[in-house]
Known about the structure:
Elements lengths: L2 H6 L5 E6 L2 E5 L10 E7 L2 E4 L2 E4 L27 H19 L12 H21 L3 H19 L14 H24 L6 H22 L4 H26 L21
Antiparallel strand pairs: 1-2, 1-3, 3-4, 4-5
Helix pairs in contact: 2-3, 2-4, 2-7, 3-4, 5-6, 6-7
Amino acid sequence: MSDLEQQYQQEQDHHFVVKNGQESQGAGSAHYKDNNITEVVADGEYIQFGNEKYRRDELVEAFGGTLNPGLAPPPKHNLANPAPLGLSGFALTTFLLSLINVQARGVTIPNIVVGLAFFYGGAAQLVAGMFEIALGNTFGGVALSSYAGFWGGWAALYVDSFGIAAAYEDEREFANAVGIFLVGWFIFTFFMMLMTLKSTVAFFSVFFFLSITFLLLAIAEFKTDGIAIKKAGGVFGLLTAFAAWYNAYAGIANSQNSYITVKAIHLPDLQAR
């Protein structure tokens, strides 16, 4: 249970001021004009975020199927959930490339992934990310749109008209450049992972496995003989893909369309201990 939820369950009314990412508690119903301040007021069965008031049971909890990493107000727009589309595009593209990284069926050339990376892991995931932003989900919008950019950037490496690979006369230099590219994505993914520590096990698993995947693949590029490390990266890539598919399924499956639904398992609240 998060700190905010614990405060909600107290009998007395409380007034919180969230400024620059930190919470402070005060009494009364003072009003603040500073745009950097968000008021969170617990009043009986209602919770007020700034000027908007919600019932307690209307608040959205952390859930991988919607890419929502923490307690939040419900979406402002009546749109379908775009997260499963983005997660599915990411999962299938990651799955295919990871199979090639482990050299499944003897396949080592990754060009078969290029079309998928441009159109499913790229364009479709980007559209899903834009809809996440429209729904007010900053985390989901940043994650899906960014990884759509990753897949587009990765696919461009294998398209001759971009001239990226041809710009490197030394094959070793090109491998090091790709390694640096992957290190950048490892750093980004690691920070995104830190923002899922208050979410669910399945949600956190996607970014945890993906962080390890990027790190291993980067190391494999830096080494002259990194085949074994690349295969290890492929294994973690497969784990990432299945975790993403699991979250996508969780976001689609319900009692109306499936006999098998997913119950979110929340990570322990370390601050409560």
